[in-house]
Fold this sequence. Notes:
Layout (H helix, E strand, L loop, with lengths): L1 E4 L3 E2 L1 H8 L5 E9 L2 E5 L8 E4 L1 H6 L1 H7 L4 E4 L3 H11 L4 E6 H6 L3 E4 L9 E8 L15
Parallel strand pairs: 5-6, 5-7
Antiparallel strand pairs: 1-2, 1-9, 3-9, 4-7, 4-8
Amino acid sequence: MPMENLLEGHIPLTSDLLYRSPGARISAEIYLPVRHCLAVSLVNSSIASIISSQEAFAQCRQFISKLYPEAALLNAKSSAEAMESVAKQGLENAAAIGDEDLAGRLGLKVLHHDIGDEKNNETRYAVISTRKSPAPTGADKTTA
């Protein structure tokens, strides 16, 4: 689950889910680079709306304002959900911001690659477990 982004800070939805899941524990973490793309199901249509998460919109502000200032920005719970909705519904005149690999797996066509404003952007992901916590190692962390 995404915990924290270098540019946008902590991910409130993940914190809320962890708070509501008293048996959940973070068992590992990994940092992954963020490389957003703009993808569509139909290449020959104009872009009237862009779907993605609030975090992705914030990370691609300059790109959107420069190339698609008139497009309506429609919020999704995640960039993956946005891409799935464009792919499954074949939304004409709509694009999604998200991961390029996922766009390819969903059959979407990538119009623009690496559209994030900050090229060194990364997100910290946590591996969540409901199993009993392991014994302390001395290199343990606490997160808020």
